[in-house]
Design brief:
By secondary structure, the protein is α+β, with helices and mostly antiparallel strands. The protein contains 7 helices and 14 strands. The chain has a 6-stranded mixed beta sheet. It has a 6-stranded mixed beta sheet with strand order 5-6-7-8-12-9.
Length: about 270
């Protein structure tokens, strides 16, 4: 019996040492800037506080965007864990009104950030809001997040997404996880090259954007948000979306927070 307990404890210790589990949330927070009230930021913080890393798209590029991220982190810090964050420079969009920032928010007790975050420059003339990238490590295992907000559906986001198939050649040593608001269904053929490389999507047949008005209990419009991970370098434990709008009396009130659901995935990385 003692030997059995010893080997069980040894196995659990070995398992804990060799595998790192990280929960990641991605959320397009719609005009995330000074227009977000303290109560709205409190709601957002309560919604995402259980995750290890949060990626935010659509941070306002002008005054108020970076400050809103700092305000959110200050609220998170009062909820039982310490958080850190990084904010991108404004994207090099062709029109100033289309420029945005991205943000990463994370728990240093769970993951360590390696080096500086960066806006990818390889396709800045082809992608309106170039992706924001950051490398983290969990228990010594590195992985790199690629946060992205594509152009709207009527401007053919497929013309931007097609460049992701080239990222593995520019970053051959990095374990990339693509995430964000693609304004395009993850089942679209434009993602086929990624799938052919071994990438898998965390969500299937899951709408993530909000309608203007609910039709009965149907409040979701399109499959726009997704995460793609390289299945040979990490595994997906579970994933889903958070139906935050159900906490509000009307969809109009919920849309003040965002017109997108937060999506999430829990990934397991092995040494």
């Amino acid at each position: 019996m003692k030997n059995t307990k010893f080997f069980l404890l040894f196995f659990l210790l070995l398992l804990n040492t060799c595998f790192a589990q990280v929960s990641i949330c991605s959320w397009n927070l719609k005009d995330f800037g000074r227009s977000k009230s303290d109560d709205e930021l409190e709601f957002i913080a309560t919604t995402v506080k259980t995750f290890d890393i949060i990626t935010i798209q659509e941070v306002v590029a002008g005054n108020g965007g970076a400050q809103a991220v700092a305000r959110l982190v200050a609220i998170l810090n009062r909820k039982g864990a310490q958080w850190d964050y990084s904010i991108s420079d404004p994207t090099s969009s062709s029109e100033p009104s289309r420029r945005e920032r991205y943000a990463y928010v994370w728990k240093p007790s769970r993951v360590k950030k390696i080096g500086k975050s960066w806006l990818d420059q390889h396709f800045e003339n082809s992608i309106e809001r170039e992706p924001y990238m950051a490398t983290f490590s969990a228990k010594g295992v590195p992985f790199t997040l690629v946060s992205f907000h594509a152009v709207p559906k009527n401007r053919n986001p497929e013309h931007e997404i097609k460049y992701f198939k080239l990222f593995s050649s520019y970053y051959p040593t990095l374990n990339l996880i693509f995430m964000g608001d693609f304004n395009c269904s993850p089942s679209h053929t434009v993602f086929n090259p990624l799938r052919a490389e071994g990438y898998r999507c965390t969500l299937h047949n899951q709408k993530t954007s909000l309608k203007q008005r609910c039709k009965g209990t149907d409040c979701l419009a399109s499959e726009y948000d997704a995460m793609f991970f390289f299945a040979t370098k990490c595994s997906l434990k579970n994933s889903g979306v958070l139906h935050f709008y159900r906490s509000f009396t009307t969809l109009k009130e919920a849309r003040k927070i965002s017109d997108h659901l937060p999506i999430w995935g829990t990934f397991v990385f092995s040494k």
